[in-house]
Amino acid sequence: MRLDAYKLRRTQALEKDKRKIRKNEIYIVLDNVLDTYNVGAIFRLADAVVAKKLFLCGYTETPPNSRIKKASINTTEWVEWQHFDDAKSAILHLKSYILNLKVIAIEQSPKSIPYTEANYEFPIALVVGNETHGVSKEVLEIADQIVELPLFGVNVSLNVMVSLAIVLYESIEKNKS
Predict the structure, then answer these.
(1) pLDDT tens for residues 135-169?
(2) What domains sit in the chain, N to C, each tagged with a CATH number?
(3) CA–CA distance, 30 with 60 (Å, rounded to integer)
């Protein structure tokens, strides 16, 4: 179903359609993501990959917020989300009721592996961290895997939404077979 900008912003009309969509067993955890435009873009991304739920943790801003709403193009209205005081608590909550949940942190770390080599078998929780400090140490300690994207230029990092998008689509591709 393709929607133009007008239809995207009319969330009431989409209510019946959202119930028909089968969601992927993907949970996205934002660990103190500061930029509200990143948060809004991740709502859009969660909708694009039909993720089950988005967890906004720590000081990550939550809806209603005009900048999140603008960047999300109203996907805050139909992407299920929940706030937790910290990402570790959100992950432990998920693990308490989702059998065989694999937690994958997207972070530069001595323990990271190339994102193309990860096991993305669903159900998974993908964690992105603060734009300056990354995924918290507490979350890295309980993650099943830490993945990293290769960087070849002068810059040593990517935007959290961009990194998440690449890993999300890799996980969907690997679950097709």
Answers:
(1) 999 999 999 999 999 999 998 889 999 999 999 99
(2) 21-175 (3.40.1280.10)
(3) 7
